[in-house]
Amino acid sequence: MAKSTVLTQNKNYITLKQRIKDKHAKKLLSLAREVNYVFNFVNDLSQQHIKRERKFLSAFDINEFTKGCTD
Tens digits of per-residue pLDDT, 13-36? Predict the structure, then answer.
């Protein structure tokens, strides 16, 4: 496992790099699609709500809309 450290403005960031075995690629791609679906849904929902109500949705409101969005 390779490890690199970057120091910026008194903050310490550590980046870990790992190779994922090919047998897990299918599952990771599936999870990435689910995350992308929810991300796009929330963006669209937020834009519609801002146009209609002129205010941002709270995290609580977004949680109510995305319950069970992907399984």
Answer: 788 888 888 889 899 999 999 999
What is the distance of C-alpha 41 from the center of its chain? 12
Token readout for 41 is 């849904």
Question: 31 CB contacts (<8 Å, ≥6 apart)?
Answer: none
What separation in angstroms does the CA of 64 have from each of 7, 37, 46, 53, 58? Answer: 39, 16, 13, 17, 10
Question: Shortest CA distance to 71 belongs to which of 38, 26, 25?
Answer: 38
pTM for this model (two decimals)? 0.64
Q: Please name the helix (run of DSSP H) or strand (run of DSSP E) that holds residue 14, with its range, or none.
A: strand 11-17
